[in-house]
Specification:
- The complex is a heterodimer of chains A (83) and B (216).
- Chain A is of the alpha+beta class and 83 residues long.
- Chain A is 29% helix and 45% strand.
- Chain A contains two helices and three strands; from the N terminus they run E-E-E-H-H.
- Chain A has a three-stranded antiparallel sheet with strand order 1-2-3.
- In chain A, strand 1 and strand 2 (20-31) form a beta hairpin.
- Chain B is mainly β and 216 residues long.
- Chain B is 0% helix and 41% strand.
- Chain B has strands at residues 9-11, 17-22, 25-28, 42-45, 48-51, 58-61, 64-67, 80-81, 95-96, 99-104, 107-108, 111-112, 116-121, 124-131, 144-148, 166-171, 177-185, 191-194, 207-214.
- In chain B, the strands form five sheets. A ten-stranded antiparallel sheet of chain B has the order 10-13-14-19-16-17-18-15-11-12, with no helix packed on it. In chain B, strands 1-2-3 form a three-stranded antiparallel sheet, with no helix packed on it.
- In chain B, strand 1 and strand 2 form a beta hairpin.
- The relative contact order of chain B is 0.13.
- The chains are: A alpha+beta (83), B mainly beta (216).
- Chain A binds chain B through residues 15-18, 20, 22, 24, 39-46, 48, 77-78, 81-83, and chain B through 100-105, 118, 149-153, 155-159, 186-189, 192, 215-216.
Chain lengths: 83, 216
Amino acid sequence: MAITKETQIGKIEVVGKYKSVQVRTDTVVMEDNEELSRKYHRHALAPDADISNEHSEVQAVCNAVWTDEVKANYEAFKANQGN
Amino acid sequence: MTAILKVDTIQDVDGNNIINENSNTITIGASGDTINVPSGATFNINGTAGTGVGTAGLTSSGGNITITDGNLIVASGHGIDFSATGDATGSTQELLDDYEEGTWSPAIDGSTITTGYYTKVGRMCIAQFGDATNNVPELTNGSNFTITGLPFSQLASGWTYGSTPSVSYADASQSYHSYPLTGRQRNDGAIHVANRSGQTKVSGDPVNLCIVYQTN
């Protein structure tokens, strides 16, 4: 009976007008290939986020959807709204 | 040559109806009977097939369906539709299409401090954390810090959907007397927390935060 624990990119979602990327990281505990438990950890990335430490799959999605136009629109949105 | 047997009713040897057709209504069995679909058989409903379809763990009575052992599994993009209910003026959505629990990593001014927890129901997210370590820095009266790392992005419509978190710290030197901190959610989703308590929150004083906000 081998018990293993691994993390997986469970879900990558692109949401909203400014293409926020929501990432669900799953921690999965398995026993002999049977899943015993699965826990979710979440974070969200806006178009101005530093993605250098993100999983390669997440980086690929961010780079695909965060076009120069999307980034510019998001910066304009923030500047217009103020913080 | 194909032989066709035309009957309205098939009965067992005791005269009980097995199959009966009357005015486009086909009745299988009778009250008190058990109709079995053997394991491995395919049972189609509206063209949808399932192998070994049965009703184990599922009962219905008086218009109610009860799942006695198992979960109701909803496909992505679907949910529970409440559109048949009365609506308040201005309502825009009546499909409950998400529920999720998990953790998030709150960061103060860019440094991760602890593990937070969230529950998402529909598009509403409740996120909270508590930390009593030196990871939460000193916050003098009149100063502020920014918390990032929320589990879901804020509905990106500017201030309209910004939320006010409930946040406080406990002064360890005064028997953990609690002081409120003021906070607001910025238009980029980050949480701005300011200390206007008149006291200094020193490093290590416990901080607790809870925020309810709208997601995309």
